Amino acid sequence: MAASDANVPTLAEWAGGPDKLKALFETFYARVPNHPALAPVFAHMDPHHAQHVAAFVGEVFGGPKAYTEAGGGHAAMIRKHMGRHLTQEQRRAWVALMLETADAVGLPDDPEFRAAFVGYLEWGTRLAVINSAEGVPEPEGDPPMPVWGWGPPGGPWLG
Fold first, then answer.
1. What does the pLDDT look like over 2-48, one tens digit per residue?
2. CATH for 118
3. Domain of life, per the record (predicted)?
4. How far is the C-alpha of 101 from the C-alpha of 50, rounded, in Å?
5. Which residues of the chain have pLDDT under 70?
6. Within a domain: residue 153?
7. Is residue 112 part of a domain?
8. d(CA 13, CA 32)
9. How many domains does the chain have?
């Protein structure tokens, strides 16, 4: 981190910390059973699913490493999606409901945070769809946890 970045909060801090992310995901997953596209996907959801996802996203957003310390990691999250056959319709519904829930629980609505938040939701849900397809191989080794910050991660135009 550059000296000028020393006072820049992480996305997790800006969002309100672990408690706010837990409230976001608990509220979101409480709404899922009433959503026609999402209810079947989460019909047999672990009762602690919201806390696990909140810990994962919090870690990705620069917060405590609670997901990793609880025995998770990026490979564990990939495995949760394998063989689930998620559709683009379900992905879009997940993102739309998440954005509605973010507003409902009072996540920051400044353009910078929301751009980073929406960017992560798009990136993460598209990877979930890819990883849920038939024939996707098990992750090899211990892939690093994603790290999401305020700026764009780069792209294929570099070179």
1. 445 678 899 999 999 999 999 999 999 999 999 999 999 999 989 99
2. 1.10.490.10
3. Bacteria
4. 13
5. 1-5, 152-159
6. no
7. yes
8. 26
9. 1
CA 98 to chain centre: 10
The answer for residues whose C-beta is within 8 angstroms of residue 93's C-beta and 6 or more apart is 35, 37, 38
- As a whole number of angstroms, the distance between CA 86 and CA 159 comes to 34
Structure tokens, 87: 């559709």
Sign of CA dihedral 22, 65, 127, 87: negative
Q: Residue 42: which domain range?
A: 11-132
Residue at 44 is within a domain:
yes
Residue 97 lies in a domain: yes
Q: What are all long-range contacts of 109-115, with beta carbons under 8 Å and residues at least 24 apart?
A: 112/150, 113/11, 113/14, 113/15
The two three-digit tokens of residue 81, written as one number? 């999606």
Give the Cα separation of 11 and 26 in Å (integer): 19
142: alpha, beta or left? (left if phi > 0; alpha if psi -120 to 50): beta
